[in-house]
Every structure is written in structure tokens, then in C-alpha cells.
Specification:
Strand content: 5-15%
Distance between the termini: 61 Å
Pfam families: Isochorismatase (PF00857)
Family: Belongs to the isochorismatase family.
Oligomer: single chain
InterPro entries: Hydrolase_YcaC-like (IPR053152), Isochorismatase-like_dom (IPR000868), Isochorismatase-like_sf (IPR036380)
Shape: globular
Protein name: Isochorismatase-like domain-containing protein
Helix content: 40-55%
Order of helices and strands: HEHEHEHEHEHEHHH
Largest sheet: 6 strands, parallel
Structural class: alpha/beta
Number of helices: 9
Keywords: Signal
Number of strands: 6
Length: 237
């Protein structure tokens, strides 16, 4: 009987998930959250190369102006060892709300932060933070509990090692959080290269923050503008 009840519960959950579908990012419903990407906490990130990671957190913040997303930034114990947000992030958001928390580990426990999030009027939230297992995960779980659709940018969340990151991402996925790569977030926000923002705005953005794709576009542009077919190339297509 117990096995039957467990099987029934699993089937009900599966049908519920299939019926609701997997959330997709809609730039008209989404807001951006920058969580504790502070210069002191940055030093605790060991699962991503430091040079790559600083690129990733600035790129995450830059999604706001690129897609005109309402953005809320938050810090924890900024005047202590955690330090401020990097100037590169602050320069991207001269008019965005910054909530400087003095004690709350989970940003959602800050009344000021909750008010700022709700003031966006959005139902979807794209977030990343330091550390993945605490700052990103705790907030993501709270947002899901409040009924929001949540998308965690895995490339812009960092922690002590890959095993901890994997466990944190599994925990979020188990709660219904969508854990995406930076590239996936961009592509879902854009939706169509012919959109606005589309190719004209997104390709320069990728050239700055995702060089492997930017150089692909550069190679195509160079071949189109200046290229000649080499012997043996003509039959390759």
C-alpha cells in the first residue's frame, strides 16, 4: 500500500510538471538580481578561473541595460571584509536600486530588498551571486516559495569548489529553479536574432563577454568582406 501511494505521488508530480511546462525567460516579465558580487567575497570563488569569473559577473550585470531589465543589486556587510560591488558593475547601474544588508544572509529576509524586488512588478527573476550555495541558492529558494519563476545564471555564481557548486545547483533544480548558462540566458532573453535587442546589439555584447562566439562572428564578417576561396574549400560546403 505504501509503495502504491508513493508511486501515485510520483505520477501526480510528473503530470503536474508536464502540465505546467518548463518556464522560459520573457524579457517583458523578467528582472535582474545582482547578489553579493563583492570584491571581498570574490576571493572565495575557486570553481571558476578568476579572470573568467570577473568577466562573468560584469556580463551578468550588463544584461540589465542591454535588455532594459529592472535591476536590483544587493550587498552583505559592505563596510566589513566583504567590501563593495566592483566599480564596473556600479557604473552599469547608476540608477538601479542597491540594498546594502547589514546582517541578513538570505537577501529575501531583508525587508528593504523584498520591497525593491516587488517594486519591479516582474514575475521572473534572473540572479547570480557569491556564493552559489548560500547567496544564490537561499534567495532562489525563497523566490520560488513566493511563486516567482527563477533563473540562476550558473556562470556568474561562484563558490569554494565544483562539488559544492554542483550540489547547490542540484538543490535549486530540485526546488524548480532553472539553472542556465550565461549564453542560454542571453538567447532566451533575445529569442530571435531579428528582435530588438537582436544581432545588432547582442553580437557586440557577445564579442566583449563571450569571445568564442564574438570571434566566430568576426571570422564570418572578415570572410564575407575580405575573404577568397582557397583551393579545396569550394567543395567543402
Amino acid at each position: 500500500m505504501l509503495a502504491f501511494r508513493l508511486l501515485t505521488s510520483v505520477l501526480v508530480l510528473a503530470v503536474s510538471v508536464l502540465a505546467s511546462g518548463t518556464p522560459r525567460i520573457d524579457k517583458n516579465k523578467a528582472a535582474l538580481l545582482v547578489v553579493d558580487h563583492q570584491v571581498g567575497l570574490f576571493h572565495m570563488v575557486k570553481d571558476i578561473n578568476p579572470s573568467e569569473y570577473v568577466n562573468n559577473i560584469v556580463a551578468h550585470a550588463a544584461l540589465g541595460p542591454l535588455f532594459s531589465l529592472p535591476t536590483v543589486l544587493t550587498t552583505s556587510a559592505e563596510t566589513g571584509p566583504n567590501g563593495p560591488l566592483p566599480k564596473e558593475i556600479l557604473q552599469l547601474h547608476p540608477n538601479s536600486t542597491i540594498v546594502r544588508r547589514n546582517g541578513e544572509v538570505n537577501a529575501w529576509h531583508s525587508e528593504e530588498f523584498r520591497a525593491a524586488v516587488r517594486a519591479t512588478g516582474r514575475t521572473q527573476f534572473i540572479l547570480a551571486g557569491i556564493t552559489t550555495d548560500v547567496c544564490t541558492t537561499f534567495l532562489a529558494l525563497s523566490l520560488v516559495e513566493e511563486g516567482f519563476e527563477v533563473f540562476a545564471n550558473a556562470d556568474a555564481s561562484g563558490t569554494f569548489n565544483k562539488a559544492i557548486a554542483d550540489d547547490a545547483n542540484d538543490r535549486m533544480r530540485g526546488a524548480g529553479v532553472q539553472v542556465l548558462s550565461f549564453f542560454a540566458v542571453i538567447c532566451e532573453l533575445m529569442g530571435d536574432w531579428r528582435s530588438t535587442p537582436g544581432a545588432a546589439q547582442v553580437l557586440p555584447f557577445l564579442d566583449r563577454f563571450l569571445p568564442s562566439y564574438g570571434y566566430l562572428a568576426r571570422a564570418h564578417a572578415a570572410a564575407t568582406n575580405n575573404g577568397t576561396i582557397l583551393p579545396g574549400e569550394a567543395g567543402l560546403n
